[in-house]
């Protein structure tokens, strides 16, 4: 038997004044997208802003549906929109902002499993990391260098064999 420990480096910023100007702008874009989210059921709004290699920023927000599985998370709305609008352009970073009208959100919400898998697909396709910048209404801001950090044993096309 072999035992391995898997971990990653997480940067924790006390507030946005500690961020670079580019990260601060991306976070503001995600927060603006969050305000337009359609979340009448959960009251949990999420906005995402995707920074592309060409400098474009594509936003998305969560879109709920009375039939819960039919909704879509902000991260997938944004990254799928980026992939549709700018095919072949690498994704550099994604900022994600969350809030709730039910309670104060004071810890950044990380992407759900489906979103992690969707983002890692782009990371694997472009063969370069996509950094994540996570924030909430108040509290710290988290940053990690790669989506692979938060999904270390990701499913990928190699499991599917030759097509």
Q: How would you sum up this structure, described in words?
A:
This protein has 163 residues and is α+β, with helices and mostly antiparallel strands. It contains four helices and six strands. The protein has a six-stranded mixed sheet. The radius of gyration is 16 Å and the shape is globular. It starts with 10 loop residues before the first strand and ends in a 13-residue tail after the last helix.
**Distinct helical segment count:** 4
Helix and strand pattern: EHEEHEHEEH
Strand order of the largest sheet: 1-6-5-4-2-3
What is the averaged pLDDT score? Answer: 95
Strands, count: 6
Radius of gyration (Å): 16 Å
Spans of at least 5 consecutive residues whose pLDDT stays below 50 are: none
Shape: globular
Fraction of residues in β-strands: 15-25%
- Secondary structural class: alpha+beta
The share of residues in helices is 25-40%
For the largest beta-sheet, the strand count, sense and barrel status come to: 6 strands, mixed
The end-to-end span amounts to 34 Å
Briefly, what is this?
This protein is of the alpha+beta class and 163 residues long.
């Amino acid at each position: 038997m072999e035992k391995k420990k898997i971990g990653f480096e997480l940067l924790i910023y006390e507030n946005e004044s500690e961020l670079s100007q580019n990260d601060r702008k991306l976070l503001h874009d995600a927060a603006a997208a969050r305000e337009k989210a359609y979340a009448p059921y959960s009251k949990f709004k999420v906005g995402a802003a995707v920074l592309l290699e060409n400098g474009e920023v594509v936003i998305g927000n969560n879109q709920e549906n009375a039939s819960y599985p039919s909704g879509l998370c902000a991260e997938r709305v944004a990254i799928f929109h980026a992939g549709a609008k700018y095919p072949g352009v690498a994704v550099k970073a994604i900022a994600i902002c969350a809030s709730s009208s039910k309670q104060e959100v004071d810890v950044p919400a990380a992407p759900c499993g489906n979103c992690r898998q969707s983002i890692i697909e782009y990371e694997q396709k472009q063969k370069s990391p996509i950094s994540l910048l996570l924030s909430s209404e108040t509290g710290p801001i988290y940053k990690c260098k790669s989506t692979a950090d938060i999904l270390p044993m990701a499913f990928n096309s190699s499991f599917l064999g030759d097509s």
